[in-house]
Structure formats: C-alpha cells, structure tokens
Amino acid sequence: MRQFARGVCARADSQGARVRRSSTDLARFAAKNPKGVRRATRFAGALAAAFLIVGTVAYAQESGTSAARDATTERVFSLPGSAFPGDCSPVLFFADADTYLSDGEARIVASDGTIVAKAAAFSLGTARSSREIMIAAYPPRAGFAVFIEKKPTLVALLALPSWAKPGDYDLRASCRASRFPSGPAREIAGERSFTVEKKKFPSETVRLNAANAAIKTDDSDERKAQIARLNDMLLNYDDAAPRFRGPFAQPVATKRRTSAYAHRRVYRYPNRSSTTEVHAGIDFGVPVGTPVRAAGDGLVVMAERRISTGWTVALEHEPGVYSLYYHLSEILVTAGDRVETGQVMAKSGNTGFSTGPHLHWEFRVNGVAVSPDWFTQNEIW
Fold first, then answer.
1. Which residues of 343-373 are buried (b: 16+ CB within 10 A; e: fewer)?
2. pLDDT in tens, 133-168
3. How far is it, in rounded angstroms, from Cα 65 to Cα 254?
4. Which CATH superfamily is domain 203-377 in?
5. Residue 322 phi/psi, 5° resolution?
6. First and final CA of the chain: distance in angstroms?
7. What is the pLDDT of residue 343?
8. 3-state secondary structure at position 25
C-alpha cells in the first residue's frame, strides 16, 4: 500500500512538473509574441460570438415545438397589456443579430372579431449586423465583453378611440423575418390578452350664435374640399416622416382648459335644433396673440386658413402621427418647414368655428383622435 501511494505521488509530481513547464513555456511565448496572443484572444472571442449568433438564429428558426414558438414570440415582440380609451399602445418589434424584420402590424380585436385598433409598424433604423455586434462586444483594444442594449427595430402605435368599450380583447402582432433584406422571409406572430380600462368622459352643452351656426351648417364645395383634404392628410402614412419619440410638451403656457379631450358636446342652434359630437382635442383659454409652440420636433404639413378651424397648423412627428393647432390669429411657418420642440410657430386667436379666444390642440394617430395628454406623459418608443 505504501509503495502504491508513493507511486501515485510520484506520478502526480511528474504531471505537476509538466504543467509548470507548459505554463512557463506559454508565459515565455506570450512575452516574446504579445501581438500574436492578443490576435488569438480576439479571434477566439469573435469565433465564440459567431457560434452564439448562429445558435440563436437556428433556435429562432426552430418551430417544431410550442416552447420554441413561445421563446421566439417573447424575443421579437413587446406587447402592452392594457390602456384607457383615447390612449396609445406602442407595440415594439425586436430583431436578433443578422435578422431583418419587415411588414410589421398590430391590432386589437374583440371577441366577435371586430377590429378596435390597427396599425402598421414603421422602421426605426436600429438593426445591427452580427459584425457590428461582435466589434461592440469585443473591441480591438479590450479583451472583455461589454453589455449591449437591445433596441426595437419596428414600432406599431395603436390608437384606442375614445368610444372603445371597456373589457377584454386580444392584441395580435405579426411581422416577416429574414436573414437578408431581400431574402426569403418567414412569418412570426404573437398574441396576448389586452384590457381596455373603464373611463368616463363628461358632456357639455355649447350654445351657438348665428355666425357659428352658419359655419357649422356650411355645406359649400369649398368646405367639403377642405374637410376631405385634411382627412386625407391625417390618414396618410409616410415612412419617410420624421422620427420623434417624445416626450412632447404643451403648446401654450397655461393651466386653464375650457374643454377637455373626448367631451361629449351638444350643440344648440338658434332655431332650437341640436347635434351631438365628440370633442377631438383640448381647448386652452388664452388671450389672442399668445405664442403657440411646437409640441414636438416635426414637419409642417399644413399652414393655411380653413373655414371650420380658422388659421391652422399641422405637424407630422412620426408616420401617421400628427398634432394640430386651430383657431390661430397668425401663423409664422409654412408647409415644408422643420420645427423643434418649443419653437414658436403661431399666435393663438379666435378664427373659424370658435366661441371665444382659445387654442384647440389635437393629436391624430392613423386618423384616430387620441388624448394629447398621453403624448406629454409618455414616449412613443
């Protein structure tokens, strides 16, 4: 037994000596060839990252099990779970390395199949190739990995109308994913339950004088053409539009609101008839000539006088996202101008269909009137 123990110890000592000699030889080699060692280290790190990316893409392509589908859905989509009527719900799309997403879409669907909200996704231009990720993770002069924030590449901004009924819905999102921009693509879809919260909107009665009643009942071809042109503009979805995520700012420096978003309005006419409408924005009670500032960075897409809204300015902030400023006394910008948040672009007034000096401020998303307060309290993405 003692002889066996001595033999084991001798073999261990011999192996330890060989390890020490190998370590010494490696240290001598590193001292003589520092550049070679650094190249080998970077190559090994890049190779490991490449295997990781290939494995991730291969896993994403695996759709044979529900677990793989769930993992892909969770990795690609960020789906909100609830919102109030009049609010927006951003759906974010995330791409893996060397994966290109396109044709993104999201919708909120009722149990009977009715679509309550629908939006196409626009690109943010934040996709990065595997080469860029490798360089960021393994910088040429650093031998350690760094954390990389994963950013969305597509955003679909769902707009809940003020008339959306509270209850449970389904939120569904889909897109196409490919290894190359023009390569073969596969469909990816995600779904989750979505709750529309309960919210009550007040009602008010507005009595019209003869001048406002005449504007309200004007059925001239000029007014019809103005309404059609404004609606066409608000429904326009231009992928070349600016990209301003927010936060947005109130356009006038006042807390006095004479009417809120989504108030149910009853208009009383001089002949004792009445009509009911939903107020699409916020009215600020300010004196004529108050500076009106851009609520966010954007492109001026309308700057003109209209029969209903008087002097009017409209800004485009994202594809399908517009802010509007009505009843102005003077406009200081022209269509095609670029404006920045807080830039004075007009003065408030009392023009068009108006019962007194004020600024009407409105937001439209894919043609749907939504609460301006949502934009001052949230970022789009």
1. eebbbbbebbbbbebbbbbbbbbbbbbbbbb
2. 444 444 444 444 444 456 789 999 999 999 999 999
3. 57
4. Glucose Permease (Domain IIA) (2.70.70.10)
5. -130, 145
6. 73
7. 98
8. helix
Cβ burial, residue 159 (10 Å; 0-12/13-18/19+): buried
Peptide bond before 184: cis, by omega within 30 degrees of 0? no
CB under 8 Å to 174, separation ≥6 — which residues? 103, 104, 105, 106, 187, 188, 189, 190
- The top-level CATH class assigned to 66-196 is mainly beta
CA neighbours closer than 13 Å in the CB half-sphere of residue 141 = 0
Closest by CA to 360, choosing from 320, 318, 306, is 306
Q: How far is the CA of 121 from the CAs of 111, 303, 319, in angstroms?
A: 24, 28, 9
CB 341 within 8 A of CB 249: yes
Mean pLDDT across 338-366: 98
Give me the amino acid identity at 112: D
Domain ranges of the chain: 66-196, 203-377
Residues forming a β-bridge with 265: 204, 277
Does the structure show a pLDDT above 90 at 346?
Answer: yes
